[in-house]
Amino acid sequence: MYPTAPYRLLPPTPDPGPARWAADTVAALREGARLRLDYTARSLWRVDRVIDEIRRDGPPYEAVRRVLRGFGAYAGEVIVRRTGAEWWLTDPDPCLRTPDGRLWTPMDEARRAYEGDGSLGVLCREAIGGR
């Protein structure tokens, strides 16, 4: 179950940070990689493939940390739009709380995907269930 890291849950935040990071990622991929992301669960499989390509190139984590944060934020926004989840301010990264009370850490999942042990597509499928 998510989150796997020790997260300290704070009150829900109206912070537009994750939504802004997601929008920036969508714009950057549209312009730079000519990849269109449409906030669907299916689009997260394409994001997983992009993360795989980055990993194969072998840059150090610190060099791609912000990009992965954007991918995680994008995955989170897909979940928000499908479930009505809310971003919660947690330390070290924001997490999502879905209406069923479960917590999800899409930024951490993006990091795990980069390490070869995670998937934003799977995270979304689990978070949205049968929706």
Descriptive account of the structure:
A hairpin with a 5-residue loop joins strand 3 (95-97) and strand 4 (103-104). The chain is built from five helices and four strands, in the order E-H-H-H-E-E-E-H-H. It has a four-stranded antiparallel sheet, covered by helices on one side. It is globular, with a radius of gyration of 14 Å. Helix 1 crosses helix 3 (61-83), helix 3 (61-83) packs across helix 4 (106-114) and helix 3 runs parallel beside helix 5 (120-128). It has 131 residues and is an alpha+beta fold. It has helices spanning 17-33, 43-57, 61-83, 106-114, 120-128; strands at 8-12, 86-91, 95-97, 103-104.
Q: Tell me the strand percentage band.
A: 5-15%
How many DSSP-defined strands? 4
Q: What would the average pLDDT be, to the nearest integer?
A: 87
Shape: globular
Helix content: 55-70%
* Poorly predicted parts: none
Number of helices: 5
Cα(first) to Cα(last) distance is 19 Å
Structural class: alpha+beta
Radius of gyration: 14 Å
Biggest pleated sheet: 4 strands, antiparallel
Q: What letter string, H or E per element, gives the SSE order?
A: EHHHEEEHH
- Strands of the biggest beta sheet: in what spatial order? 1-2-3-4
